[in-house]
Design a protein that fits this description.
The chain is of the alpha+beta class. It has one domain: Arc Repressor Mutant, subunit A, CATH 1.10.10. It contains seven helices and three strands, in the order ααααβααββα. It has a three-stranded antiparallel sheet with strand order 1-3-2. The chain is globular and about 40 Å long. 20% of the residues are buried. InterPro entries: ArsR-like_HTH, HTH_ArsR_DNA-bd_dom, HTH_MetalResp_TranReg, WH-like_DNA-bd_sf, WH_DNA-bd_sf. It comes from Lysinibacillus telephonicus. This is ArsR family transcriptional regulator.
Amino acid sequence: MEPIDVFKALSNETRLNILEWLKEPEKHFPKQGAHLPKEVSYKGGVCVGDIQEKAKVSQSTVSSYLNMMQKAGLLESIRHGQWTYYRRNEEFIQQLAEYFKTEI
């Protein structure tokens, strides 16, 4: 884990909101359930387009944000056809919480 990358990723309000929204995707992305492929559930993540719509930023901006968060370890992605779905990397977030408890 590179703590500085995590801090950079979380230093933007929209990126922090995205991480919070993905904690409870059913609550924050209710319309997504209507168009999820059968093999995908909320546990498989949330579509980039739905995140972009909620964040009210351009597609390129949200893609950049999601990429940064994924590189920091906060998110995981999975591709289904032409769509990419993002979810929180809960294992990494637990490690981050432990880091805060023991190191900071």
